[in-house]
Specification:
By secondary structure, this protein is an all-alpha fold. It is built from three helices and no strands.
């Protein structure tokens, strides 16, 4: 492994878990959860770029897949949060 490169456990262990129920969480908790997911996307994309720069196509493909999964989780969570907020606004 190159100096400065990290393995997948190092990248994903840094994100703290937010354990609130989505229905009872505050705006700050929702924002914190989205920031954690966004940070994971950024860390994985950096690992992907490092693998590309190192000329390692197999590792780059692995990080690309991890990054895409993290982006999908972020986008799904963001849409779910937006849907709940719009649904709540309509009931008022």
């Amino acid at each position: 492994m190159e100096p400065g490169a990290r393995n997948s456990t190092t990248l994903t262990e840094k994100a703290p878990e937010v354990t609130s129920s989505p229905d009872t969480e505050t705006k700050e908790e929702r924002d914190a959860r989205l920031l954690i997911l966004l940070g994971e996307v950024i860390r994985l994309s950096q690992a992907w770029v490092r693998a590309l720069e190192a000329g390692d196509p197999f590792t780059a493909e692995k990080w690309e897949a991890e990054c895409i999964r993290a982006m999908d989780r972020f986008e799904a969570d963001r849409k779910k949060t937006r849907w709940r907020r719009e649904s709540f606004d309509q009931t008022r």
